[in-house]
């Protein structure tokens, strides 16, 4: 696998595939958009139908922006630029989300989940970029777990949109309102951390502390509000829970030594 390091030819091929994944995301999300909206209405969840209208469009935008980033990475690889693989990581990170989230509403009403192909292709491209960049296995593992926090934190922001429409109590409505966008900011912060981590940026550790902390601020109050209101475990909690664990992991001396060592190599 080491032979892939700095392999610009493979980078060109993967970038072309990434561009095609951008078009695939556009097509699949557009094709499933109204069937899922209508399915949610028929399932008695008009609140989730409105959420799908908002978030599916956002996933399409992100997937297409990822395709444009791949086009830029293609130029970089063709010109043998060192920055190309890092941009590919960012493009794949965006497309992973655009492929993953649309599967959830579709599956919840027993509809097909074709965007799984966007998700799987983007994940392969993401891993391929890390190999081209010569990223070591410990950093890849940390980036992968951070990716889980990235996806779960974003989903917390989606869930808050639905809760905001259906909950009647005053305080919980306010909590869902103020927590919604913070979770999306935290998801974006995790994505930036992943980029900084694999590229060995000097500000990687502070960025990780910020991403994890923001995810806890966004998700934990909403999750606790949900538990108190419903009297059961809340799916808002895994995101801030994993983020809190990652905060501890990032601050561990061993992890900091690994990250600083990787930064020194770059």
Describe this structure in words.
The model has no long low-confidence stretch (mean pLDDT 95). It is flat and about 55 Å long. The two termini are 20 Å apart. The relative contact order is 0.11. The protein folds into 2 domains: 1-134, Butyryl-CoA Dehydrogenase, subunit A, domain 3, CATH 1.20.140; 136-266, Butyryl-CoA Dehydrogenase, subunit A, domain 3. α2 runs antiparallel to α3 (84-100) and α6 (137-166) runs antiparallel to α7 (170-199). The chain is built from 10 helices and no strands. The chain has helices spanning 8-42, 46-78, 84-100, 103-108, 116-132, 137-166, 170-199, 204-230, 238-251, 253-265. The chain is mainly α.
Secondary-structure blueprint:
Blueprint: H1 8-42, H2 46-78, H3 84-100, H4 103-108, H5 116-132, H6 137-166, H7 170-199, H8 204-230, H9 238-251, H10 253-265
Please name the CATH architecture of the largest domain.
Up-down Bundle
Which range does the strand content fall in? under 5%
Number of strands: 0
- Report how far apart the termini are: 20 Å
Tell me, what is the CATH class of the largest domain? Mainly Alpha
Give the helices and strands as they follow along the chain.
HHHHHHHHHH
User: What is the residue-averaged pLDDT?
Assistant: 95
- Biggest sheet statistics: none
What does the radius of gyration come to?
Answer: 19 Å
CATH topology of the largest domain: Butyryl-CoA Dehydrogenase, subunit A, domain 3
Instruction: Label the structural class.
Output: mainly alpha
Count helical runs.
Answer: 10
pLDDT < 50 runs, ≥5 residues: none
Shape: flat
Q: Compute the number of structural domains.
A: 2
Percent range of helical residues: over 70%
């Amino acid at each position: 696998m080491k032979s892939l390091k700095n392999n610009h030819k493979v980078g060109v091929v993967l970038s072309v595939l990434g561009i095609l994944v951008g078009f695939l995301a556009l097509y699949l999300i557009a094709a499933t958009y109204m069937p899922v909206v209508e399915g949610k209405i028929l399932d008695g969840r008009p609140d989730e139908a409105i959420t799908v209208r908002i978030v599916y469009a956002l996933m399409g935008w992100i997937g297409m922006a990822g395709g444009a980033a791949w086009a830029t990475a293609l130029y970089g690889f063709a010109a043998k630029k060192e920055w190309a693989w890092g941009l590919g990581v960012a493009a794949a990170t965006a497309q992973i989300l655009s492929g993953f989230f649309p599967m959830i509403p579709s599956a919840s009403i027993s509809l097909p989940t074709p965007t799984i192909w966007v998700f799987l292709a983007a994940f392969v491209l993401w891993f391929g970029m890390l190999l081209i960049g010569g990223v070591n296995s410990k950093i890849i593992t940390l980036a992968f777990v951070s990716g889980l926090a990235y996806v779960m934190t974003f989903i917390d922001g989606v869930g808050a949109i639905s809760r905001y429409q259906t909950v009647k109590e005053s305080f919980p409505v306010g909590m869902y309102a103020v927590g919604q966008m913070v979770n999306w900011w935290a998801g974006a912060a995790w994505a930036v951390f992943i980029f900084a981590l694999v590229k060995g940026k000097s500000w990687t550790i502070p960025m990780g502390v910020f991403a994890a902390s923001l995810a806890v601020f966004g998700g934990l109050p909403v999750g606790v509000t949900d538990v108190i209101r419903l009297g059961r475990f809340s799916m808002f909690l895994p995101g801030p829970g994993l983020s809190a664990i990652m905060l501890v992991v990032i601050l561990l001396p061993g992890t900091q030594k690994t990250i600083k060592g990787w930064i020194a190599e770059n």
